[in-house]
Amino acid sequence: MSENLGKEKNLDLNSLNVHSDFTDTNKIVNITSTDNDLLTSGNLLNIEHTGNANTVVGPIVNISSTTTSTSLDSVLKVSNTSQTAGNVLEIEGKTDKNALNVTQGNIIYSGDLKGATRFQSHTISQSTLTDFPNNNQNLIKNSFYSSNADTRTVFLPSATTCDIGDFITIFYNTEIGDSKVHTYQLDDNDTSFSLSSSLTRVGGAVASKVELVTTNDKKKLVINGKTNGDGGQGTTIKFVNVDKSKTGWAVEVIIYNQGNGTVASTSTFST
Q1: CB of 177 within 8 A of CB of 225?
Q2: Alpha-carbon gap, residue 216 to 219, rounded angstroms
Q3: In this predicted model, what pLDDT tens digit does every residue of 166-180 receive, in sequence order?
Q4: Sheet harboring 209-212: ordered strands across?
Q5: CA 110 to CA 218: how far, in whole Å?
Q6: Residue 186 CB-density burial (10 A; 0-12 exposed, 13-18 middle, 19+ buried)
């Protein structure tokens, strides 16, 4: 048996048990809609539980399968191949509690895994490095850049206009020329790099150096190229948007030396 319910019909049931051997249709439960007004503020499917007794165990919604089919595509599939905004799937949990718990199996993804606490590595991005911008040009979010030997000042997009997890990574496959300077500057709308952003010069013939952002007024990152000093190949700069605020760009800078590494680091954060 099958029954079609229009939007003028409601079901008020204490329990609903649906069993089907696909005798009527190839879908056990089929919900379709072309009504734009209905979805202006409503939901096509709403499952809500408000009981707070400690006897509630759950799972509140259970989707399971015991199939051993070698042709199985997915147990649960959520898609929107015409997406222009928003999220295909959104999970909202509570601070310090698990919003997603994968107890067995692998997590496999093909796109970028972005998050407020994740810097992005070009090594595993499967992306070709983009040429470093010309002087006084803008960096593009979610991009991996190679370096340039000449003096450059480049600008980050405002953290407030980007999404949490958006990133920019620069890998120095070319060392900076002697006395050449790379300046990474925040948008005028932003006030500082995120607190505890860090700059590390890895030794050489001189001691290593570490500098942290400890005040909300650091708008520039300056890398000073020097023969036997800063800006050697392998230097990596990773920006990530942590909270969409005016101090939303966090940055981790790892600097390797050129030549014999006898010149101390002069690279720094500045106002």
Answers
A1: yes
A2: 9
A3: 999 999 999 999 999
A4: 143-145, 167-171, 236-241, 249-256, 198-202, 209-212
A5: 35
A6: buried
Phi and psi for 34 in degrees, rounded to 5?
-125, 15
Residue 151: name the closest of 233, 219, 257, 222 by CA: 222
What region does 47 belong to: left with phi over 0, alpha with psi -120 to 50, or beta?
beta
Cβ atoms within 10 Å of 124's Cβ, excluding its own: 8
**252 in helix, strand or coil?**
strand
Residues making up the chain, counted from first to last: 271
Cα separation, 108 vs 165, in Å, equals 18
Both tokens assigned to 1: 């048996």
Q: What is the structure's pLDDT at 7?
A: 55
- Which of 140, 142, 154, 166 shows the shortest CA–CA distance to 248? 166
SS3 222: strand
pLDDT confidence band for 12 (50 / 70 / 90): low
pTM over 0.85: no
**What number of other Cβ atoms are within 10 A of residue 49's Cβ?**
9
Strand, helix or coil for residue 210: strand
In tens, the pLDDT along 72-129 reads 888 888 888 888 888 888 888 887 788 888 878 877 766 667 777 778 887 777 778 9
Residue 126 tokens read as 């499967």
